[in-house]
Amino acid sequence: MNEHGGLLDPKLDYTKEVDLLPPKNDYVFSRLFGRRSHERVLVCLLNAILNGKPHIKSVSLDPTEYKKTRPDGKSIRLDIAATSDNGTRLQIEMQCKNNGNIGDRASFCQGRMRDDELKEGENYSNIPTIISIWICDESVTNRKGCCHEIVSMYKDNGVDPIEIASEKMRQFIIEITKLEATPKRFLNDMFSVWIKFIRDPKSIPEEFLNIPEVKEAMETLTVMSSDPVTRAEYNARVKELNDFYAGQSVKYEEGLEKGKEEGRAEGERLAKIESAKRFLEMGFPLEQVAQGTGLSIEEIKEF
Q: What is the model's pTM?
């Protein structure tokens, strides 16, 4: 199999050390798990995360772009989108940075995937289950574990207990930096193997490379990492991300500085008002209070 289909190219020499591309980069991740002919690798990853709920036998890959539905709307592009053999819709995202809005973005993407799911007259019970999986390279929650599932819940109302309302919309947030902090009894072995692979493929113990899907992923990654075109595309993606986050940082710093300036100006204004009030209480004429504080006579008259 060629074109990064999961088998080593016999024409290339893999006896020398290869500088592996990082699977936690979204471009590399989608090439590894979201390409046709790589479906069994994706199925293995999904089953490790879902842990049998449901157990997936096969997937078909879906389009990853959802165009905006109105002129002022927002389009989305997913890393991987798929439908399982039991009709479950799946979206898998690799997120390198914590933008502080993972939950909101996951909910928005799920909503877009649900658009036009039902035909006129069809029962609402036919809405498919949509599972959103966000694998994050940075901490995005205050929780201690590395894998969190979110579903619709009934809150405690004082009469009824907290309970699940629906599992039609499920979100998984996986924080790969917290893997070691999570007791092993709460994680299945394949989940740990895949998270370690995504975080650092060279950290995988050799015995796990005998697992066919892990071996295929490692071989595919090796081929990708040895291909100059793929590496150039990866470098372009890294630059794109760096430029984006640099722009975000500049906007944040500009907003922060603007906020500080506005805060200082408001503080100075309040100080002038307090001074004006004291001068008025001491019997100073209105004109002198205005001249001494820098406030206008109209402003002083307001209080």
A: 0.73
Query: 270 exposed, middle or buried (CB, 10 Å; 0-12, 13-18, 19+)?
Result: exposed
- pLDDT of amino acid 32: 93
Question: Which residue, among 44, 29, 52, has the nearest Cα to 193 in the 3D structure?
Answer: 44
- Taking the C-alpha atoms of residue 28 and residue 218, their distance in angstroms, rounded to an integer, is 12
d(CA 138, CA 60): 29
pLDDT in tens, 133-148: 999 998 999 999 999 9
Compute the distance between CA of residue 293 and CA of residue 73 in angstroms, rounded to an integer. Answer: 49
Query: Which of 107, 103, 116, 110 has the alpha carbon at shortest distance from 69?
Result: 116
- Other C-beta atoms closer than 10 Å to the C-beta of 110 total 18
Phi-psi region of 100 (alpha: psi -120 to 50; beta: other; left: phi over 0): left
Q: How many beta carbons lie within 10 A of that of residue 289, not counting itself? A: 20
Write out pLDDT tens, residues 22-53.
Answer: 999 988 999 999 988 889 999 999 999 999 99
Cα–Cα distance list, 206 to 29, 214, 218 (Å): 21, 10, 11
- 84 closest CA partner among 48, 123, 120, 131: 131
Query: Exposed, middle or buried: residue 142 (CB in 10 Å: 0-12, 13-18, 19+)?
Result: exposed
Kindly state the tokens that stand for 130.
Answer: 């949509």
Is 70 in contact with 113 (CB distance < 8 Å)?
Answer: no
Token code pair at residue 105: 């973005």
Question: Average pLDDT, whole number, for the chain?
Answer: 81
